[in-house]
Each structure stands twice: as C-alpha cells, then as structure tokens.
Amino acid sequence: MMLPSFPPTFALPRLWSRRILPRLACICAAIALLPACNKQAAPPPPGPVEVTAVTIAPKDTPVSFEFTAQTQSSREVQIRARVDGFLDKRLYTEGAVVRSGQPMFQMDRKPFEATLLSAQGQLAQQQARLDVAKANLARIRPLAQKNAVSQKDLDDAIGNHKQAEAAVLAAQGEVRTARLNLGYTTISSPFTGLSSAARVQEGSYVSAGESSLLTSVSQIDPIWVNFSISENEMLKYREQRAKGQIKFPPNNDFTVEVILSDGSVLPDRGRINFTEPSFSTETGTFLVRTVLPNPKVALRPGQFVRARLLGAVRPDAILVPQRAVLQGAKSHYVWVIGNDGKAKERVVEVGDWLGDNWFISNGLRAGERVVVDGAIRVAAGMPLKVTELPAVSAEAKESVQPAVQPGQAGKAGQASQSAQPAESSQTPRSPEAPKSPQAPK
C-alpha cells in the first residue's frame, strides 16, 4: 500500500508526523500479513479415544430378593392367675428374659395350705370308713355262705364297702384339687422368652379368668420374620421361570437372611416355614413367614427389618457395568467394539440391577467387547484405544445387593437403612407365591 504523497511545498503539521503516520504504517503492515496467515496448515486430526472395555461372558449368576419385613414372636402367652387370692410378690424383672419354669409371681399360699390340710383330713376319715366297711364285708361274706346271716345283711355290707371306696376317691380328688390350687399360687413362665411389664402390682387381689392378666411372655428364639408378596411380582417371576430366565432352588427351599436398619446382616439364617393360602383382600398380597434362630436376642418382636431370599440363579446371564449403558431418545444402548477397533452403537434390552451391574436381556452376545469408561466421548466409527477390564463377577456383589428394577435402584439402597411399616404389606420385589410351607410356587 502506497503512502500518500504531498507537494514539496506542503509541510505536514508536527502532530500528523508524530502520531498519525506511525499508526497508519502499522495498519498497512497488518493488512499485508493477512494472506500469509490464511495459508497456514490445518491442525492434525484427533487421535484415538482412550476407553476401557469388558468382554461379554454369560454365566449362571446368583440373585437375591429383598422384602420389607417385621419380626413376630414365635410363641406369645398371656400369664393369668388360675385361682383367686392376693398377690404377694413379683419374682421377675420386667422386660428381662425369663427361663422355662422360672417363678414370676407368688400369691398368698396360706388359705390354700389350710384348704389342703382340710382335704387331707377328709381323705383320712373316708379311708378309715373304708377300712371298717372292708372288715365288715370280710366277716359277713363267710357267714352268708353258711346261711348264718341273711342275704340282706350281705347286700348291706357290700353296699357300705362300695360307698366307702367312692368316698375315698372323692376325698382323694379334693386333696388333689387343693394341692393343684396351692401350686397355682406360684405362677411360672411356661417357656423361655421375653417378659413384659407387670399389669398387677403386689398386694392386689386377683381373680381367675379373663380379667386376671398379670403379664405376657414372648418367645424370641426362634423368632418369626413376616413379609408379603404382591400378585404382580408373583406373576412376573412365574413368567420368567417359564422362559428359563430364572431358576429357584430345589423344592423352592430359599435361605433367608435378615438385614437390620443400620445395614448389618445377622449371621444366623432362616427358612420359610409357612405361607398364607389366600391373598389379603385389603392389600392384594399374601403373607410369608420365616423362622429364624435368635440365640443372642438380636431381634425383638415388632421390629422392622429387611428379609433377603437367597438361592435363585439367572442361567447364562449377561452382566455389564451400569456406567456402560447409555440412555438414548427411545431406548438404552451400548458401544460395541468391532474387529476393526471402531465403535458401533448397539440397542440393548435391560433387566434388573445387581449391585453396580445391569442384566442385559437382549442385544449382546458372548465374546463381544463393550465400552465401559469413556463411553460418553465415543462416536460411531471412531477409532479407540482400548484397555481391557476383567470380566464382570457378580458372586461377591450378590451377597450384599439384591437384583432390583432399574427404576427402583435408589429405593433398594435406602430400604436397608430404613424399613417402613407401609411396605410390609406391599413388597416391591419378590419371587413367586409359595406353593408349600417350604418355598414359593
């Protein structure tokens, strides 16, 4: 670009020569360099995307099912007075475990001891009369054979002897009754269990009957764990069994473990021993009962827990990490690595969750490689730099996390921390309805 020329006679002002001309020269130089900038080489294409992948290996995978459950005493008895009288002492500690035969209450014994003495006296009198009647009969019988006495005398002797025997039996019954009533004044626990609060205080007069409730004892070893199964879940698992997608243990003999509200698992496991034969008309579910050993009194009646059924298996199941499955506009999909090392999008049908993994019902085959980490950066046909991961293993995870529906995964994680009473009648996940007391149908 040429700078403007001026006549020799024209003199530029000092301000123009010092400020304007240098700036104008810089602008001209920048304009001259623009074509050179446009001729620079384009940046090199991006390299392969670094991802991790797992090879699909179908295998029989153990699964479990969790239910909100509530504990119940396997045997609960109300302790009542069987005789009338005053209550002298309470012999147990309220709320403590009482042993079988342990005295719990002591009633006033003195009136019953007096009644027993009187009955014993009556028995002695009747025994004496029986001895006299027996001696008379022994004397009269030989005389009657010799016709020394009349037949009437013999009949009277026989009658007196039988009456004396009957009187002795009646007196013996009175003695036994008095002795039983005396024994009833000491009220003992019929079995080992957890005692309740005393309903009657010392010095109170108690009567035999329904109004004489003193306390109650609940057996806690073993203890029952009750949960409910919904009709929808029963039908769902029945269909899966018919398709061979899931197998239950032989004879449907599930092992049941209990999870407390803090997430800890009890070491003792139980078995299903009863199933309600009909559905509840109020909730549409039916009751399943588990008997569980409780030697350390870790469970109390009325406690809300989680019951986990173990023993079911999904044959030839395909598991992939949950982070490998992406959500598309209409379906779930994964990135499958082809033989050329490039990614291809594959639509899959997902099933339940198992820990951090997802069951794939349809869309993947054995031996295929699926992108796990870095899947969000992958595009179709993009070259990849693959790092292999070990095959998915579910055995260890199965013991701590049940298979759940994808939409219920968050609820399943929270349920072990806080079991709610409302869920005890409508369980979200379950096997089929039990056909026998041992297992689901």
TrEMBL record:
GO biological process, one term: response to antibiotic
Protein name listed in UniProt: Efflux RND transporter periplasmic adaptor subunit
Residue ranges annotated for the Multidrug resistance protein MdtA-like C-terminal permuted SH3 domain, each copy included: 316-375
Every Multidrug resistance protein MdtA-like barrel-sandwich hybrid domain range: 75-213
Stretches for region Disordered: 395-441
Domain Multidrug resistance protein MdtA-like beta-barrel residue range list: 222-309
Record-level Gene Ontology MF annotations: transmembrane transporter activity
GO cellular component, one term: cell envelope
Organism domain of life: Bacteria
Signal peptide start and end residues: 1-41
Keywords attached to this entry: Signal
